[in-house]
User: Fold these one by one.
Assistant:
Number 1:
Amino acid sequence: MSLSKGLDKYLLEVRKLNNMGRWATEFMHSRTTVSEHSFFVTQIGQMLALIEEENGNTLDWGKLFKKLLNHDVVEAITGDIISTVKHKSNEMRNMVSVIEKEIAEENLFCNMEEPYKKIYREILFDGKDESLEGQILKASDHIDALMECIGEIRLHNKSPFVEKYYIILEKLKTIELSSVQYFVSSILPEIVSGCGEMNCE
Amino acid sequence: MSLSKGLDKYLLEVRKLNNMGRWATEFMHSRTTVSEHSFFVTQIGQMLALIEEENGNTLDWGKLFKKLLNHDVVEAITGDIISTVKHKSNEMRNMVSVIEKEIAEENLFCNMEEPYKKIYREILFDGKDESLEGQILKASDHIDALMECIGEIRLHNKSPFVEKYYIILEKLKTIELSSVQYFVSSILPEIVSGCGEMNCE
Amino acid sequence: MSLSKGLDKYLLEVRKLNNMGRWATEFMHSRTTVSEHSFFVTQIGQMLALIEEENGNTLDWGKLFKKLLNHDVVEAITGDIISTVKHKSNEMRNMVSVIEKEIAEENLFCNMEEPYKKIYREILFDGKDESLEGQILKASDHIDALMECIGEIRLHNKSPFVEKYYIILEKLKTIELSSVQYFVSSILPEIVSGCGEMNCE
Amino acid sequence: MSLSKGLDKYLLEVRKLNNMGRWATEFMHSRTTVSEHSFFVTQIGQMLALIEEENGNTLDWGKLFKKLLNHDVVEAITGDIISTVKHKSNEMRNMVSVIEKEIAEENLFCNMEEPYKKIYREILFDGKDESLEGQILKASDHIDALMECIGEIRLHNKSPFVEKYYIILEKLKTIELSSVQYFVSSILPEIVSGCGEMNCE
Amino acid sequence: MSLSKGLDKYLLEVRKLNNMGRWATEFMHSRTTVSEHSFFVTQIGQMLALIEEENGNTLDWGKLFKKLLNHDVVEAITGDIISTVKHKSNEMRNMVSVIEKEIAEENLFCNMEEPYKKIYREILFDGKDESLEGQILKASDHIDALMECIGEIRLHNKSPFVEKYYIILEKLKTIELSSVQYFVSSILPEIVSGCGEMNCE
Amino acid sequence: MSLSKGLDKYLLEVRKLNNMGRWATEFMHSRTTVSEHSFFVTQIGQMLALIEEENGNTLDWGKLFKKLLNHDVVEAITGDIISTVKHKSNEMRNMVSVIEKEIAEENLFCNMEEPYKKIYREILFDGKDESLEGQILKASDHIDALMECIGEIRLHNKSPFVEKYYIILEKLKTIELSSVQYFVSSILPEIVSGCGEMNCE
């Protein structure tokens, strides 16, 4: 096989996340790319982790950052299947999950050599589990979506972002981390202020 | 129910096709929207039909145009699931097809009243069957994709569009219409000329 | 002449409609291209025709779709002369009309062979006459413009789109089709709702 | 009338030139706006004038800059009628010229008060005459178009910009100014170098 | 040296102003380029000068236009250092000013021959002095910034543009020209009208 | 002070990196934002670290990711001063560094409360030191720039990206990490292949 062990292909695939916009079916004043989303999710997760530490909890920073940074890399290969479709049914969710793995095998890992094949396979599919780090990832993904909604609403693009905001906020509140509770009660109200149409009770 | 019988909602949903770009994971100099794609597929289908008529075949123009114009409208609701995913397996294709119908029911038809509900349900899901009109739709969809590839290659954006060009061309050639044979043998070579990297044998 | 009979050139010219934005002198949050406009006008026309049929009228679907789909194709060659200029005077309108035909002859039809030359010449210049199909085209063109105004106003881009909205609405109301009356009285109010600045009496 | 004497309206109209792209029917990697074009034409004219002075000619700098800066301001009101149309015939050119003046009167000057009405009317319609300053304007307009072609060709966007390049170059060469001859013989070859497809003999 | 005396390089550098957007750190609905800014500053300066003449003052139009047109050309080489940084301290301002000159020498003038080297060196660094023309430049630069703020506020992009508007307005008012006073008291209120959130006392 | 301890302000400032494009003075087919750059630098750093571990070296993953993720956050406040300016002289570099800290204090930290103020102050200014993690950051920053150059060259945008490519490659080679040597000798040649204009010896 090649000297590069397939790592060149990995970098070129990841770079495609720059081409992919989120919320594909909606008009947005400021459509973020999946790369920008991944960066910001990682920033949010870093903040939640700092708050967790202040609250006396400990976490594995290396594990956390890997989860945050890589959680959407597979989309470079599969595209961003909108969540209405992905979460339509358990059957669909499982099907998508299986397919994503197959496509990643065929388009990415089949060209990668050990030990990197094993390492990246773990990294790319190690996501939103019930560990503290997994929960922080789940919360950060929701918080980034909330902030995208807020950004649009502030610029008067209300439909469908006001409605989405409340739906996502409800999901966020179900995550029982002290950092999330602090975000919802103390940080979010400041972010939303001046955005008269909303409250975040 | 409302005086509008849900027709306002239909128009607003279709308009979302302006927001949706094709080939989501690739860099493109000129990314077309699903609306632009639908327009051009209809133009190509019109041309193929004129050629069929010159060859002595008859077709139902109303049926043809409805197929061409509406073949991607459902994507306004489901997003553009990239074809690598959609066509990964028969199981996936069927699953996607079922889900698309369910989502269309829940987000579009549930708000529509008769007789329009029945009419649009037929229009939106009456696609690439084996009728002459259905085959023209299938061919037009491929030809538009070919022309998108050619447009990018002409501007020196070769990867992955040269490869895609040849894959799509093979699919096109399997459609046994005289208009398609004429397109491949006589029109396509002129379109490709000046695009030195390719031939279209 | 060439094997393609000039049909390659026709497709390449039509594709230019993807490059051309509407309302050239105004700032827009979401500028549609002439291709997107043509697609949506055809969708609106399809809806008006369905409503006409419900009202017991009959129409020629093939003729209708050809009018709708092709009504702005000539602009690919002449550019989109803004309507303030085009409709400045009868003299100007006639002059523009004559020039458009000459330019189409020189840049498109001179390279096209029979029978396609005759067919496309008819298709491209068969527009807003007094037939039912011609009136549906005229109405659809206005309704698309209305919806572009509404889209901008909803995003707080009020000047000059509020003013344009009312001007176009008046023109629409002069078209005496039952489908148009139904659109104005029953569909438009739903579309405008939530757009507090306007009413559509 | 208003305290502003209509000068607010003038500024708001001129600002629309930021919205208007040139070469409306063509794909461009880098479409310039009419404002950017006007800026660059003025820069080119400044250079030609400096060269003229080096050659011992004298010119009226105030008059020159006014011609250069304002030569396309009227387009903010009329839109950019593409030159194929505008220069189709003498009759068309005269017609467009008359209409442009009428529209400027109705949309701009009717709201302006003296003395500014008289001053701006002169400024906006004092263009490409046979004075040295008028000829510099004409040459600068061509040179900017040449440089737009070169920019696209350099990025591999050859059709139709190679062809346009040679047509415009011929027009430029008909202007008998020493600064233009110097530009064509000594500056242009350097600009074109590295752009292998062209020479500028 | 070359026949072009380095003038080709000057034109290519200036053209880069088309690539550079203003207000780099803020979201804007309509981000102007440095070329568009330069064009509009020159238009504003022309208006202020006409008003000065009406008030009986005389000015050197050639000198004025050169100041207006060229005041940001050096940015094509140095980039647009945001003003918060540039004006952080006198030390910083002086440092930036020295560096800009050095970079211009190394990247532009070192390739230019006399007499153009001397002429352009004067033109590019002859800016906001205390002459009438220099004061008009300073005022025009502020007025363009005000109008960019107004444009964004009108489209509901209030933060940080409302705050910036008032800061810039205060700076503008410190310029003691009768044309500026007229602009502030009589033209600006008309421009701002309909933009309910602001007054311009 | 506020309940949010200034963390809301931090998130809003970081989000501005989505607005900021890199290589401000150059035309680019695909201009990346500072957020996208930060994401990709972190991906590259993760890869280099995995290679270091394979080579038997150990590193602090938490420390590494913090360096990678946050290395350009301060630019959200100061803007992206182009490197030609920043690295013009030691004096300039020091000056910029001092100013950046002052501006961060005034615009970010003055609103932040302990303990976060102390933590983020460390995170944001802990960059390219001589630790293994600091060297990986430095290398990753160069590799991302290389890949931006390659992306443009592949699309035929050669000037100035071919020249920049070689300059950056030289800088990269001065970093004496085994992962960097492996990247240069084994991964980069694969990435560059098909990009005929370059070699990467």
Number 2:
Amino acid sequence: MTRDQAKPLLNYISNHVNLSDSEEDELIAIINYRKYLKGQYLVQQGDICKHSSFIISGCARTFFVDDKGQEHTIMFAIEDWWTSDIGSLITQSPADYNVQCIEDTEVIQFPYDIQEALYLKIPKLERLFRKMLERAFVASQKRIVRSFSLTAKEQYIHFKKQYPKIEQRIPQYMVASYLGITKEFLSKIKSQLATE
Amino acid sequence: MTRDQAKPLLNYISNHVNLSDSEEDELIAIINYRKYLKGQYLVQQGDICKHSSFIISGCARTFFVDDKGQEHTIMFAIEDWWTSDIGSLITQSPADYNVQCIEDTEVIQFPYDIQEALYLKIPKLERLFRKMLERAFVASQKRIVRSFSLTAKEQYIHFKKQYPKIEQRIPQYMVASYLGITKEFLSKIKSQLATE
């Protein structure tokens, strides 16, 4: 891919670690640009996840479908976020989750098979991913805490704060599924909030 | 601390990355051995977390107390596990969680203020922590999924599998609080399972 296409990723990286020009060139040589259409999958439940994807534009949803056919939304990702099924990626076993594009989505992909070699070559990238994982882990623990301690209404208010630009972009049933409530209950919460 | 005291940690590390003798010596020079008594805290909600702790013996529980005074259990940690409030550690802001010893507990502590310098000196340790974080993040996401898709009974069965050696060591109310149910409901589940 071209340096120009990689610009959003290089900007993102430069907020966390400083790569030299030659390190940037090495990186650009191994990452790939890919455009997915709305409805297409970056990862499908049951497949083996082969990439970490950095989103340049668009929006993707991570969800899984349980034995009863029920969808559960794990997370959303938009511009400047990463997405993948990390469990599948690090064990190279079938993915638990689907990552599906809610909009046409442009990504930069890191192929997993060269990721460990890349870390050895450019340790600053291992630093970047270590730091990203720290934050992702903290956010994930906080979500567990919220599910314990907040009401559905409080969780919805938090969701709006956490994803301020996303709510207009996604169907309401996905927001409900992220909160672990029904679409009807979400409507009720929203009309309650509107009258407060 | 002595090489002998560090043995459990060095064994653990050798399962993931290979340190040279001199790298092990550098590590030993900066980590600390500490014994906590049952009931003492490794981290207290509101304090700034200063260490990552590797447990040599004993058992610690991570929990938080919400505005209503209700305790919520996030995780347990026993021999060969790590514990800390990572959110507090990486931002050096007040901890959201308590980490309290359920038994007398021996730990090896990595001081946070030298952790980044340590990674620069021994990149293999950054690799170790990156890999640990990947697994911790995956486990945390799976817990969110279980809370969505499994009944309390199924979650309890999973808990027994995940923590096979812990259940006998901790009070039942902590297990209930980990599962997000009441002590009474847990008793009911257990007597149901006993008759199956």
Number 3:
Amino acid sequence: MPKTNDQEKIEQDRRLKGNMSKIRHKFLVISGKGGVGKTSVAVNLANALSLTDKKIGILDVDIHGPNIAKMLGIEHAKLSVSADGIEPVEVAANLKAVSISLVLENPDEPVIWRGPLKMVTIKQFLSDVHWGELDYLIVDSPPGTGDEPLSICQLIPDLSGAVIVTTPQEIAVLDARKSLVFVRRLNVPVVGIIENMSGFICPHCHTEVNIFKRGGGEELARACEVPFLGRIPIEPEFVELADRGTPFVAFEDEMESSKAFLKIVRRVEEFTSTR
Amino acid sequence: MPKTNDQEKIEQDRRLKGNMSKIRHKFLVISGKGGVGKTSVAVNLANALSLTDKKIGILDVDIHGPNIAKMLGIEHAKLSVSADGIEPVEVAANLKAVSISLVLENPDEPVIWRGPLKMVTIKQFLSDVHWGELDYLIVDSPPGTGDEPLSICQLIPDLSGAVIVTTPQEIAVLDARKSLVFVRRLNVPVVGIIENMSGFICPHCHTEVNIFKRGGGEELARACEVPFLGRIPIEPEFVELADRGTPFVAFEDEMESSKAFLKIVRRVEEFTSTR
């Protein structure tokens, strides 16, 4: 006898619950404005945590601009299906990744979907991806407070926390503040705010130039009484590394941004140790 | 007798058609990735065109991160309602603006809406805003190929064209290419591609540093055989002006980015003169 829609929904909810129960800490990386470096924070956080012998999954729910595969250097890989469900792509020993871009035949193909279809896809990623046991799942959301982050907050009721990424200028901070109100309203704990692209050191004259200003993220954290996780400067090498699919946390000794980022990773770990 | 839903829909479609028929050229400004300067292109394009004695409207359909009001310095204004419909905010003699942020009571309030409600709002903006006669309507879309740009392309069947904004690095160009496929699939003419944040001139040593690389937008235009509208360099003053709500096209003689931008405006005007 074919299953009814209700039966299917109940079974999917059961699979989702079982799947999520095997993952210890689940984090959402969110921003109000686009282009503030949310995906690069998510990718580098996942990478840095995987180097500490923890088992990590990274899930890209940015359906229209899925960039984690490119930043991880796995853009030519594809998700497969086994008896256990959808198999994530193994990026490294302790790091697995899932993104809509790992399903698409053609990387130029835009996903022209309205909200309800996105919700269905995100739910399927949560219920049917065979992550196995994980220490951390990092979810990279598109900017804003729409269908994708809303689906994550509603479908993962025990979300450990949200990391909010902003750049320092007012326009970005204005939108980051909205993200903060959003996660609070959905009862998601706030890990803290990261101020990205904060100051640029000219590689020629070594003078610091605040292209996107400086301090806006830190001020927001103080005003809203949430932790300030740290500031990451802009480095042109960083853009090059992201395009090449190389995580910049691998260059700890050479790059200012890498050193700053690793301090932020320690703070995220501390956050989980208090839970 | 109360109207049925069908009657209401027919009447709204009629109002939308009437409203749009009074607007000569309608442009969508779109990007794949967020944070590439789409809103600032839209705001400065509207501003520059309004200085040529043309009547301009700017419509912000970025429901979750509406920034045009802030960039135009009208963030404390509110939309009003008259017998003719929703009255846009008058920014200057020839420039009117509409944004969801001009309706919200509290600027920190996130709009936590799923796709279908966004579509309803966008449709209402198109059918019920009393723009009057306009030479140009510039629509600023959120990044990606989701509900908002899809609604615009479907609801304005005679859209004059789409302006695609990208930054030069591969990650952004990858997403811009998706936007290009998106607008082509929806039969919207492509005005061309703008390469924003292309090169940075250090204000201290005057050396050029390609923070986000250089040339990616131009290469994409060549590969896809669409016009390349021009490249705009990064200037820290620009971020300051955007935060203060001052359009940078007002500084033609002083700023490299302003000079570059005005050339792009001329190209958009040329595009309309061929139609």
Number 4:
Amino acid sequence: MPQLDLTATSVDLTRAVCDIPSVSDDESHLADLIEAAIRPQAHLDVIRDGDVIVARTHTGASQRVVIAGHIDTVPINDNVPTRDIEIDGEPYLWGRGTVDMKSGLAVQLKLAAELVAPRIDVTWMWYDHEEVDAARNGLNRLSQSRPDLFAGDFAILGEASNGQVEGGCNGTLRAVVRTHGVRAHSARAWIGENAIHAAAPVLARLAEYRPRDVAVAGLVYREGLNAVRISGGVAGNVIPDLCEVEVNYRFAPSSSVDQAADHVRNVFAGFEVEITDAAAGARPGLDAPLAREFLAAVGAEPRPKYGWTDVARFSALGIPAVNYGPGDPQLAHHDEERVPIAQIEAVERGLRSWLSPS
Amino acid sequence: MPQLDLTATSVDLTRAVCDIPSVSDDESHLADLIEAAIRPQAHLDVIRDGDVIVARTHTGASQRVVIAGHIDTVPINDNVPTRDIEIDGEPYLWGRGTVDMKSGLAVQLKLAAELVAPRIDVTWMWYDHEEVDAARNGLNRLSQSRPDLFAGDFAILGEASNGQVEGGCNGTLRAVVRTHGVRAHSARAWIGENAIHAAAPVLARLAEYRPRDVAVAGLVYREGLNAVRISGGVAGNVIPDLCEVEVNYRFAPSSSVDQAADHVRNVFAGFEVEITDAAAGARPGLDAPLAREFLAAVGAEPRPKYGWTDVARFSALGIPAVNYGPGDPQLAHHDEERVPIAQIEAVERGLRSWLSPS
């Protein structure tokens, strides 16, 4: 079994962890390597729970930050092993996981080994199954079985944020809007009622909908309401009796799931609406004292996070949380996934400067 | 092998042919029985071609009528053997094929044997594979391989018409109307373009569409334009880049297929429209002298036929054609398919009175 060398540069370490495939459901080998590299660090108290590894400092500091990252990736598509490439003169590391989020993971692993006496106590958390359904998410599982491990004043998730600090995240809700009709032979359509025609106002309301921009604790969250699926029809000669429009509402963290559901029901008033899935957003939490210190140390302008991330799990536990990691989130899951080398180094510097004793 | 007794009543003969399953692709046994019963009739010249049986009188009359019926049914669904039932005091024969169209077939078989010297020469045609795609339709096949057998001045198809005369039929055209967009993550919808939202005007035009009533040779054909299928969507968190609406246009026989296609393209002007399937309608042809005699003899008020039927094949060969058969077409293919006994007898009387020497 190859060893992970935590004294290597964070860029070399990114290359190493990317070249060890760990697609969701197949993370155990990488988890084993991480455990083997972290367990000997005398300043860390290490817990392995399934494929989650928790490593805590106990310096006696008055405050604690949880710094977390997932170790799985979406499926590889001929983009492993990594390659060094250059775009417009700038060096990049190319390949699956470079953005989402093994560069962030590499920075965390390196600093976990290096910072033997951080200014603030740190709970490092590396977890499995982030890229699949929430029921299998390692962080979710552990937050239920071992909430004690999540004790902290602030949390940082290493998800790609272009090296900026992205606060909180929008919530997400899915609903199915249904229209009903009466089947009939299409040669005698007047005997039936066309459920697809009845969905015309549903699409019209979606097309006319103007999403809100909502300011929450100084950040402006851009909402969205979109059809993500439509289906209806029985056969080529039958008037359809059912049409379903699945919509996805991304809502600012100032709204609760119940408020978001009410909003969707209002938009589609007069139609059958079934809420099928929902997850609350996370308030940016940037007014917490540790958050303010962190922002000052890394010198980044905070931005809102639009996509739902696991910061919402910390938020649900009452812990302010932000996203901070190298890589452009729009290249996550992309076949041309790639991270600027400079962003890996910048995030490493940012975290180190904040956590190092002054 | 049981014999078909063509001297039985048309009701008993309906019962007999319904109790011999002949779902499309499995008609040969019934075709064999029909051939065995018809072949000995000295006044008939019989041709077997695949599972099509053609039986012609040669009385030397100056005019000829083609009287046709299909021998297959849609799949049986626990509704064979037939049963005698009563609804509101009226006797019915219940079971698969009683409406579509073995009652009409039975009347034709009985009269083919009985009318040894009809007033007008008759070409009887019983054919296979009407309930499946046109490429396998026995009448369609024979009209291409033996158009000579279709010589005639008038044609009657025994499809269910409630014992009334239904002239011609509407044409039918299917088209797919497509909208395009740009995929994006639904958390950042503003980067993409939603193809489902773009379909809002397509559904609005369908919902607002008022179909025409078109008078053709004295009959009023009711048109219809309907969505029969809609689909779109990639995943629950992706802005969809394609939406397809399949529409079915039923158009009066005064319009050609090209005119119907132009109409559909006009309705959806500004959208991508692909015509996927089309079949011309059939003009009622009730102004033909034989048709007028026939209407007078059977004493029926002619009505328009809305559904597309094989009368259109005769129409395409230049032969005026009508539908005339027992049973309510709305019960065709229905699990509770059933025919009023009185309608079988009425259609038998109607055809006999018209064809018998005066």
